[in-house]
Amino acid sequence: MSVYNGERFLASAIESILKQTFADFEFLIVDDGSVDRSAQIIADFAARDARIRPIIRENRGLIVSLNEMIVAARAPIIARMDADDLSYPDRFARQHAFLNEHPDYGVVGSWSEDMDEDGRPMQRSGADHPLTHEQLLRAIDAGEQLICHPAAMFRKDVVLSVGGYHAAFRHCEDLDLWLRLASVTRMGNIGERLLRYRRYPGQVSSRHSTEQQIGTAIARLAWQERQAGRPDPTASLERLPPMSALDELFGRPGLSRQVREQVALGLRYSASALRDDGFDLLVDHLRDGGRQDGMWRTVARLVRYGEPVRAIRLAATLARARAA
């Protein structure tokens, strides 16, 4: 578990791990330079439970923290957990048993259930995660969800064999890892809801929606390159380039425009993205003659989000594009 300013939900997340029916584990927790009470909360739990190995240090970012803990872990199997979610008591037992029974699987996740910031159940939208490796490969092709990151359990040696998490894919580091692992091991999910996933405006996926969607699109391009037997140009990057540089990076004209359109259409439904630089990306897409699918509904959505000025800007852009 990597923690950065997670005091609000941290204690309950830690308690959900300490209550696992499978109790033979070490619990690595990195406090990644928090400025709230997170470090003290971790230290208090560590004083009461010897299974916790706290690492308290300056901020280095999530990906550095995850790779640090993978190397430091003494067990051959590692479970991921986030500081704002809750694991059900039998999560570790069910996943550990699955990996023992399926030695050809290097990663197993589980289905999850959504809750709001106060722990109240939320209605799920979309399909559940794929169960078998074959279903997961079809989900990759369809651009669907693969494995819920905080619900994942994996074999340490398999993840290290592909270089762990890649620094360039901030905020979608899990997808990039799953796509690289899909070529070297079998992966899937247990069809039980073993994790409660918290959704709220302050979570990382909400605050970095635009960057996450851009990274997701590039990760899938890299997957296609590897599947075609071509070198992955993102493999050694510390940071992804701007979308305008993708044609040059992958050596194929038209990719920059393709990715921008894909991301722009995906951002239509993200309130956080439409309030940040995702809005400008969407407008640039339309000014360049991009697809207008559902954009007038996005105007109405912006009004509902309390963004009337942006709604007017988007409507004016659509009107000019129609006139042209």
Automatic annotation (TrEMBL):
Segments crossing the lipid bilayer? none
Q: Which Pfam families match?
A: Glycos_transf_2
Q: Does the keyword Hydrolase apply?
A: no
Look up keyword Transferase and say if it applies: yes
**Gene Ontology molecular function: any one:** hexosyltransferase activity
Question: What keywords are annotated for this sequence in UniProt?
Answer: Transferase
Ranges where the Glycosyltransferase 2-like domain occurs:
1-159
What name has this protein been given in UniProt? Glycosyl transferase family 2
Native source species: Novosphingobium pentaromativorans US6-1
The organism's lineage? Bacteria, Pseudomonadati, Pseudomonadota, Alphaproteobacteria, Sphingomonadales
